[in-house]
Write a structure and sequence with these properties.
single chain; mainly beta; four-stranded antiparallel β-sheet; 31% strand; disordered C terminus
């Protein structure tokens, strides 16, 4: 079950409504591919706010927990799997814009279900589960797509809250910001031996996710994003990525204006 705070603000001529949603709003097409994880085939699960609390609808909720870098989303209503030869295309109401003034130059964040191996402390050397890579393409009109190359869907695991433990069965009280990216210059080795508090120190206010700079597309406004996994032709491999959601990074000026007068509306997606 996901939850999210939808903020609308009016500052002068600035208004906010449904069209201002920073999350993916519509699934255009989905093909699971040959190696997608069985049962994780509902593409609608990537729409809206990425998951902060997971597992409520699995086994009666007995394993429900906060989403942390050690406890990623695992419900079949929370993630969709893309296997070899498969793809997922989504549309956004708000445009994704290349803005060098965004934090670290990041314009889009993709959320997966990767996590650190560990019981609250990353190993040294560090290891991850749920790793994978996907080709990312973007488009203004949903017809002509431009490749941004491949993205590693492992770093950085989602963090739902700024407080609490890595496997808490109750929600935290301080939410992270899913529209703020982690420093993309960080590597897996930077997390070696870190506990949850130290990981939060590296994340700052961010809720994690894979940072994407759309500069390579040379487009003013992007409304469509497609992820795909190539078939490597090797029957012994099972390449796949599992996707939880997307977020548009707002321009810094927009963030400042919204912070002056935000009216929050809490809703539950599932």
């Amino acid at each position: 079950m996901r939850d999210g705070l939808f903020a609308c603000a009016v500052v002068g001529a600035l208004s906010c409504g449904v069209s201002a949603s920073p999350w993916a709003s519509e699934v255009i097409s989905y093909a699971p591919g040959t190696t997608a994880a069985p049962g994780f085939d509902d593409p609608q699960s990537v729409l809206g706010v990425p998951t902060r609390f997971t597992g409520e609808n699995v086994f009666g909720g007995q394993f429900a927990s906060v989403v942390s870098p050690f406890s990623p989303p695992f419900g079949d209503d929370e993630i969709v799997s893309i296997g070899e030869g498969g793809h997922l295309t989504v549309r956004f109401d708000s445009p994704i814009r290349n803005d060098p003034s965004n934090p670290f130059g990041v314009d889009l964040i993709v959320f997966s279900n990767a996590g650190f191996v560990g019981t609250g402390t990353v190993g040294d050397p560090p290891a991850m589960f749920g790793v994978g890579s996907a080709r990312i393409e973007v488009s203004r009109d949903g017809v002509d797509f431009f490749s941004l190359g491949d993205i590693d869907t492992s770093l950085f695991p989602t963090m739902g809250y700024r407080d609490g433990g890595p496997f808490d069965s109750r929600r935290g009280t301080v939410r992270t910001d899913f529209q703020t990216p982690v420093d993309p210059s960080l590597t897996l080795d930077d997390f070696a031996g870190l506990n949850l508090g130290q990981i939060r120190g590296l994340y700052g206010a961010s809720g994690g996710g894979i940072p994407v700079d759309v500069a390579g597309a040379m487009l003013d406004d992007i409304y469509f994003v497609r992820l795909s996994v190539a078939d490597d032709g090797d029957p012994t491999t099972e390449l796949r990525v599992n996707i939880d959601g997307f977020a548009v990074v707002p321009a810094p000026s927009t963030v400042g204006m919204l912070g002056l007068a935000a009216v929050g509306m809490l809703r539950r997606r599932r």
